[in-house]
Design brief:
By secondary structure, this protein is an alpha/beta fold. It folds into 2 domains: 7-130 and 299-316, NAD(P)-binding Rossmann-like Domain (Rossmann fold), CATH 3.40.50.720; 133-290 and 323-346, Dihydrodipicolinate Reductase, domain 2, CATH 3.30.360.10. It has 12 helices and 15 strands. The chain has helices at residues 16-28, 49-54, 64-69, 85-94, 109-120, 136-146, 164-173, 181-198, 212-216, 296-310, 319-331, 339-346, and strands at residues 7-12, 33-39, 59-61, 75-78, 98-102, 126-129, 153-161, 202-210, 226-233, 238-244, 251-258, 261-266, 271-275, 281-285, 336-337. The protein has a 9-stranded mixed beta sheet. A 6-stranded parallel beta sheet has the order 3-2-1-4-5-6, with helices on both faces. Helix 5 links the parallel strand 5 and strand 6 (126-129). Helix 4 (85-94) runs parallel beside helix 5 (109-120) and helix 8 (181-198) packs across helix 11. It is globular. The two termini are 29 Å apart.
Length: 349
Amino acid sequence: MIEQKYHSIGIIGFGARGQLLAETIGAEIPEYGRVAAIADIRENLLFRQGVGIYCHNFKIYHDYRELLEDKEIDTVIVETYPESHLEISAAAIKAGKAVLCDKPAVASLADAEELYKVVTSAPCAFQMGLNLPCRPALIKTKELLDSGAIGKVFSVRGCCDVGYAFAHDVILRKFAGDPAGLILGKLTHDTDFMQYCLNTYAEVVCGFTANFQHRRHGTGETSDDTAVISGVMNNGVLFSQELTSCGSAYSRKFTFFGEKGELRVDSKESFVEIITPDNKCKRFDVTVSNGGHGGADKTLLTSFLDYVDAGTGKARWPERICSSIMIPLAAMKNDIVKTGEWYRSIVKN
């Protein structure tokens, strides 16, 4: 049995996402540890109400290197922009900290290769913060697929609609001038989930991206927000993924097609459905909590800290550093890309 430890956690990058995780730690899993320090380059941070309620007496640094020198901190959560993830994660590992690095792991294939080498070349505790598979309905989806509930899977279709209001706000406020920012930030989740569920990786990818908001709102630099992607996995499963930015609501939906029927799931819902070839529907209910991302953040954090406590000395799912970003980045090429060749050149099974 794993001995649960009490962790002193430092969060590097204390924007909306970093604060939401801090609130989750303080409100939902205080037995696992506390937020003992944060690092953010901004001098006058505004804190969420929950941070004030559940997180107390944490130290504030404005240089992440000072946080890494803090002997009290044993675990670090990296919540900065992906362009800095390689540098910060490598420094944290060198400082002997356990690291949870939010997605996207990095912003380029070159950085993905380097980060993979960093976390696999020496003992460490490292995991990516991929919380989508931690949503209750998607946990059940993985369980059903692994059990063979729809038999051999032949194809999978995904659609992520971030909604008009979200896309307009985020593109203009957060990703302006970064052509791949939204594509990578959103589809890292969806395409990683497909590969994770199917226990494989993308072999060939064909994608096209466009900029809906840019065409409607002026001529300034902004970020591509619409994508259509198709391809084939290494195990032969066909896949397609769409990202839209003009819908009425935010949703993520997946349909897996197998020899025994199809599995349908909406990540935010409290159920998964399997439709058999004779059009009978079987529904599997799950419990969705009121916590961050329907309870996914709590599940992500507890799973990560349990992994750290196990003391394996090995990075967890390091291959997903590469597989999670290669499909969105390939889509930005507007061409056919042999992602599998690149993946195998780095990840040695």
